[in-house]
Fold these 2 entries.
Entry 1:
Amino acid sequence: AQSVTQPDIHITVSEGASLELRCNYSYGATPYLFWYVQSPGQGLQLLLKYFSGDTLVQGIKGFEAEFKRSQSSFNLRKPSVHWSDAAEYFCAVGAVSNTGKLIFGQGTTLQVKP
Amino acid sequence: GAGVSQSPSNKVTEKGKDVELRCDPISGHTALYWYRQSLGQGLEFLIYFQGNSAPDKSGLPSDRFSAERTGGSVSTLTIQRTQQEDSAVYLCASSSPGDLQPQHFGDGTRLSIL
């Protein structure tokens, strides 16, 4: 079955510390991978996406993610977290053959300590 | 330019009533998606419209849920005989023509069933 797993429901980091949010997927077709961020009361904003090519992709707000096919993972990273990064983060997978429909993980809530 | 617009932003209704949620996509976006976000859960795909093609309704949870898209633009999601388990945030997204164009999300409608 197609699925996306974000093992960490809640993560707390100190401002200025590095961050890694985990995402594992199970998908029969060639996956296309996305990370979205959701601030309270708002919709989702696309951070970055991976379709093909270089497995390390750069996104907005200083985020990057690395696609590792052997581990079925697409972890999101940021070298230095800012207080404004506190939000909920969603990993999603899609495929051309799937009409663009995305399958989302459960989300990881990031709290940033001053 | 204007983003995806959803109305109302909040809706409180009594169990058993019908509700209509509206989505106005970004101009020129031919693809439109509805998702449901329940408390503590990820986003659940509901329905997808692409141009004049038949919609993908595979995510609708029951026959109480329906959606239409008039003139290839505005979409309405209707829930009949609402139940308490229908309480959630309903998110609409739209995307440009072409495979796996990024989905742009509205801020959602928070639906509460009393």
Note: The two ends of chain B are 37 Å apart (CA to CA).
Entry 2:
Amino acid sequence: DVKVTQSSRYLVKRTGEKVFLECVQDMDHENMFWYRQDPGLGLRLIYFSYDVKMKEKGDIPEGYSVSREKKERFSLILESASTNQTSMYLCASITSGIRNEQFFGPGTRLTVL
Amino acid sequence: AQTVTQSQPEMSVQEAETVTLSCTYDTSENNYYLFWYKQPPSRQMILVIRQEAYKQQNATENRFSVNFQKAAKSFSLKISDSQLGDTAMYFCAFTSASFKLTFGKGTLLTVNP
């Protein structure tokens, strides 16, 4: 089975802190994604990566950056956390091909105080 | 830009009954895929069912089936013989030329005993 893991299920940070969210997948997928999930807004794409060291902005990239140094690992970085970044963050991966399903991690519930 | 609309924020159904979740989408593409994802309270998102736009036959996966109306741009999910384990948030999603998904805002389904 494909497994996508995220470094933390729950995280509490203070305003202004630099925050790293880590995601690892074990199926050699080329493409990885970071989403933000908020009640009533569904899932919104923050960034995605289609190869090592390659990244593209999604729909809401402001305040975030990403890093993909190895194929299996995709990191989301909040350079200076703010309270409006309190949310659930989901990582996903997929092999190339539009009919394929995305595999999701369990999510990280981030609270910024 | 593609949009996906789920007009029912919440629904409930009695165990063993049938329920239908609605989804409409907007696109100018002719070749695309539609998905229903399920997110149980434990938060791991999983694929329920997918439909290729070029296939007229509606997809079926055990108790889950879709009613795909391409002309109307409608893609509803029917759950037969509802079970308590079907309680979850359900997301409709769309993809066309790339592997990026556009999600609806979700429908929270509660199955009552």
Note: DSSP finds no helices and twelve strands in chain B.
